[in-house]
Amino acid sequence: MWHVGPSRAGQSLGPGFPQAAGAGFGASSANWSAPLYVGYGLPMHIRQERESDCSAIAEVTAQAFANVTHSDHTEPDIIKRLREAGDLLVSLVAIDGDHLLGHVAFSPIVINKQHCKWYGLGPVSVRPDRHGQGIGSALIRAGLAQLSSLEAGGCVVLGDPVYYRRFGFEQDDRLRYEGAPPEYFMRLTLNAQQVPSGSVAYAPAFTG
């Protein structure tokens, strides 16, 4: 199962960091917040998800992926399973007043069945009526910055190469994800001294 679609609408596409590093509610990064101003001068706040956000996250995610060709529309369930398993290392929301505009998730991956402090980006979703305002990009940049501060080695993503190169992602033959075109599977090195080599697997939440 792999998903490729307009990144501002949704990109989908698993256990390594201690849960206290940011997974789940009430973790050490739960109060992380960054005020931002993006697109059209509209104010927006990015912060760690709260328990009260769960329903809105599911709704926005479902809306974002509704018309994505390569989606099987299980993204809200994936996020729910990641949360229940404690595998949401970073889960950020974009907020405008009382309205949730978008969400991004980062979860641990394994490489050759080994935990190595590398993580996967996705799903990332933006409310369809707020596309084109830089919300998805802001969520991704904030999430990557938080990952780096947590001493993550790196991050992988499965998605549109044209979109994700702007964040520094690039295709690397050393990392492989079975079943997806290699040009759509990319990595970004954060704190790792060298890129690991092998087959990548996402968290069990991605497969049900």
Describe this structure in words.
The chain has 208 residues and is α+β, with helices and mostly antiparallel strands. The chain has a single domain (10-207), classed as Aminopeptidase, CATH 3.40.630.30. It has four helices and eleven strands; from the N terminus they run E-E-E-H-H-E-E-E-H-E-H-E-E-E-E. It has helices spanning 54-65, 75-85, 135-149, 161-164; strands spanning 10-11, 33-38, 42-48, 90-96, 99-111, 114-126, 154-158, 170-171, 175-176, 185-189, 198-201. Strands 1, 2, 3, 4, 5, 6, 7, 8, 9, 10 and 11 form an eleven-stranded mixed beta sheet that branches. Helix 1 packs antiparallel against helix 2 (75-85). The longest helix is centred in the C-terminal third of the chain and has 15 residues, at 135-149. The protein is globular and about 45 Å long. It starts with 9 loop residues before the first strand and ends in a 7-residue tail after the last strand. The model is unreliable at 1-9, 11-30 and 35-40 (pLDDT under 50).
**How many E strands?**
11
- Encode the helix/strand succession as letters: EEEHHEEEHEHEEEE
Total discrete domains: 1
Rg, Å, rounded = 15 Å
Weakly predicted, low-confidence segments: 1-9, 11-30, 35-40
Give the DSSP E fraction (strand runs of 2 or more residues).
25-35%
CATH class: Alpha Beta
The fourth-level CATH homologous superfamily is: Gcn5-related N-acetyltransferase (GNAT)
